[in-house]
Amino acid sequence: xxxxxxxxxxxxxxxxxxxxxxxxxxxxxxxxxxxxxxxxxxxxxxxxxxxxxxxxxxxxxxxxxxxxxxxxxxxxxxxxxxxxxxxxxxxxxxxxxxxxxxxxxxxxxxxxxxxxxxxxxxxxxxxxxxxxxxxxxxxxxxxxxxxxxxxxxxxxxxxxxxxxxxxxxxxxxxxxxxxxxxxxxxxxxxxxxxxxxxxxxxxxxxxxxxxxxxxxxxxxxxxxxxxxxxxxxxxxxxxxxxxxxxxxxxxxxxxxx
Length: 257
Ligand code: SAH
What we know:
Layout: E1 13-18, H1 29-37, E2 40-43, H2 49-52, E3 59-62, H3 74-86, E4 90-95, H4 105-114, E5 118-122, H5 127-135, E6 147-152, E7 172-177, H6 183-192, E8 200-205, E9 213-218, H7 222-228, E10 235-241, H8 243-256
Parallel strand pairs: 1-4, 1-5, 2-3, 2-4, 6-7
Antiparallel strand pairs: 7-10, 8-9, 8-10
S-adenosyl-L-homocysteine (SAH) is lined by residues 21-22, 46, 95-98, 101-103, 126-127, 130-131, 177-178, 204, 206-208, 234-236.
Protein name: uroporphyrinogen-III C-methyltransferase
GO molecular function, one term: uroporphyrin-III C-methyltransferase activity
Domain Tetrapyrrole methylase: 14-222
């Protein structure tokens, strides 16, 4: 069965729209169309004002966390977006990057579906992709890093530790979201797991925006270099464990033994 495009359906709908990493021209055409057709846009902290300007006709409602204040609880956000859609409004729930990556989209999809509101995901450019563009290098490299692992260092409160060191197997680029506040612990865990202190680490702050900043360092000096750098938030970490490094390490060990 072919579905009608979302914007053509009867009013009273929710679109979880990827706002991309910040730059206004890193939205999809579909995201721009949903914003132009919206009656109300619910947005949070990481969404750049430039992106909101793509919906001048809509009401803009901030549902994020102001500095020093409490953030909106997720169930309150679910309630307000569903209530607006039930009033027959076209709701855009604007989320940074791609809404399906660390965006708590499940809760909002469930809330909409539980009351029979039409809901869709409009994909966006995730922070890792924007970071690669900032660095001018790809996330994967044939023969060196054949695997891209996207992970968060911040799980649901009460969940077990994400065990990130185990994800960094040879041939992997590890893109770490929400990691900046726990770098010392992260580095300690990586080194304790036997990772090479010389592994290349890149940190990109505010990728794609005018505040974009890049730091290239190693696992060993990551904490010190971040402390002296002006990176700001948000920032993402890319840790590379190329296959060649693993081969070199094995060779070195073989020579020593
Ligand atoms: N859904 C988003 C991720 C939300 S989690 C996405 O797909 O990108 C929030 C984390 O994303 C931040 O802590 C940071 O690690 C990362 N992030 C978001 N925007 C970023 C940007 N412009 N530059 C660097 N990191 C960013």
